[in-house]
Amino acid sequence: MLKQDIKKPKNIFRSPKMRSDNLKAWFGSHEALNEISLSIPTFHVTAIIGPSGCGKSTFIRCLNRMHEVVPGTRIQGNVYLDEVDIYGSSINPVNLRKRVGMVFQKPNPFPTMSIRDNVLAGLRLQGMKTYDSDEVVEKALVRAALWDEVKDILKRPGLSLSGGQQQRLCIARALALEPEVLLMDEPCSALDPIASAKIEELIHELRGKYTVVIVTHNMQQAARVSDVTAFFYMGKLVEFDYTEKIFTNPKYKKTEEYVTGRFG
Amino acid sequence: MLSTRKIKSFERDIEEITEALTQMGGMVEKSILTAILSLNTRNTRLAKEVIRYDQDIDQKEIDIDRLCINYIALQQPKASDLRFVTAVMKINNELERMGDYAESIARQTLFLAKKPAWRELVNIPRMAEIATSMVRECLDAFLKRDVKLAYEVIARDEEADKMQSKIYKNLLNDMLTDKENIERASSLLLVSSKLERIADQSTNICEEVIYLVTGKIVRHREKVHALSSPSDS
Q: What is the pLDDT of residue B233?
């Protein structure tokens, strides 16, 4: 009886939400990513860590085709969302970005818009009619753990909020589009520890409902929020495993050197 | 560059913790050897010294704990550094217990010294030799991160167990032969069981060394093997 109670860890890599296959990316002649094959587990949080310039931001920008919007860039290889190649000719990048949302390093609410309009901005840009916009706004703000703080001031400008609140507003804006995957590029690097903690709590809440990929320089944060961690170094994927494995007993020396701070 | 080396503050902390634990190991080893010497020579002065010295060992344990806690709080160690500090905290604890066992042996010296000299301690010094060499070697294995040596020490635990059971039989026989022997034989039985525990603690330290170096947890394996029936596999 007792033995049955012991839960075996599930293999969460078996049916990934997204998957890259030998992905290469360039900025002009500079190769930023070199044959990255990585499976992003569904409804889990994947952290991507590595030193500056290792290609981690480039990688997540390839996951919603944001890399190609920069002139002079190109990619090779494949990226799949639910096993459909997102670089296929039938895929509309704008629709893709609705399914694979993104939150950036610096909170970037639209300056002239109210809190409410900021939440709806993504939907409007997508040309979607929002019949029940109040409900959409509330739902997105609740999910972004901001509703209680702003429910009475929805008409105030987005920029009147604190940095941490602005970042959660940006997350609400992304969530209003009901994405399946949420990419976060160092979402806490411009925030103080209290605001960062709130975002981390929020990421914890999002797990199980969304597939989250977070790029972070803060290893402690990666250790706290993620289920799996990928370590990138000089455009290559060095190691990808369960977060606890990466931070207690990584397989490769380079990962060990990075997570223990023996770089440089 | 990955290879650029300079001493960083966390590396200084690791050195400091290692040095403190090495000192602790030396103190405990000295305490065990002195306790056994006091027993062999019926020297109560030495026995009292061991009892007093245990306070220093206790203090050292607290100091090492404090160093480790500060290191965790300030450096937030990961991977091998994390395994290092968790291993040190456990080893520190094992060593402190060994110090307690040495003190306990010294107390038996005080008790036995009041009684008339009796049988020779035949196997007890031999057992003490095994136990102290295991202590020395497990600390060596820690300092050199020597997994092979750690496994060798673990294997020697069987020798200590066998010796303990031999001593037990002899002393039981003494007790059965003459009830006058009961008090003194019980006291020696206690000594041998403490020595056996010291050997056990040494194997625990070796298990921590194996974890530190390889990340593999090898504790409680025998128990697991002994309990699992073929149908479980």
A: 35
Mutate to test the interface with A, among B11, B13, B78 (most CBs of A within 10 A): B78
Element spanning A27, H or E: strand A16-27
Residue A144 has pLDDT above 50, yes or no: yes
Does residue A107 sit in helix, strand or coil? coil
B121 to A245, B116, B129, B173: CA distances (angstroms): 50, 14, 13, 14
Residue to mutate among A221, A233, A251, A260, with most B CBs inside 10 A, is A260
Instruction: State the DSSP code for A157.
Output: B
Residue B104 domain boundaries: 10-221
Give the three-class secondary structure for B78.
coil
Q: How many domains does chain B have?
A: 1
Encoded amino acid at A83, one letter: E
Give the pair of three-digit tokens for residue A136. 């959409």
In the structure, what pLDDT confidence band is assigned to residue A190 with cuts at 50, 70 and 90? confident
Residue type at position A234: M
Q: Region A94-115: what's the mean pLDDT? A: 91
* Record: contact B4-A264, CB cut-off 8 A: yes
Interface predicted TM-score of the whole assembly (ipTM), two decimals: 0.70
Query: Is B152 part of any domain?
Result: yes
- Tally of CA atoms within 13 A in the half-sphere of A123 that contains its CB: 21
On whether residue B202 sits in a domain, the answer given is yes
Distance CA A205, CA A208 (A): 8
Q: Are A132 and A176 in contact (CB under 8 A)?
A: no
Check residue A198 and give its pLDDT.
86
Any domain includes B3: no
Q: What CATH number did the domain enclosing B158 receive?
A: 1.20.58.220
Q: Smallest Cβ distance to A247: which of B4, B10, B79?
A: B79
Distance of CA A79 to the CA centre of its chain: 15
Dihedral angle sign, alpha carbons of residues A60, A63, A64, A69: positive
- % residues pLDDT > 90 (chain B): 76
Please write the tens of the pLDDT for every residue from B168-178: 999 999 889 98
- Torsion angles phi and psi, residue A82, rounded to 5: 50, 45
DSSP annotation string for A70-100: STTEEEEEEEEETTEETTSTT--HHHHHHHE
Consecutive H or E run containing B16: helix B9-41
Number of H helices, E strands in chain B: 7, 0
Residues of B in contact with A247 (CB under 8 A): 78-79, 82
The answer to whether residue B229 is domain-embedded is: no
Q: How far is A244 from chain B (nearest CA, A)?
A: 9
**Chain A residue with the nearest C-alpha to that of B228:** A3
C-alpha A119/C-alpha A124 separation (Å) is 10
Domains of chain A and CATH, by start: 15-107+180-258 (3.40.50.300)
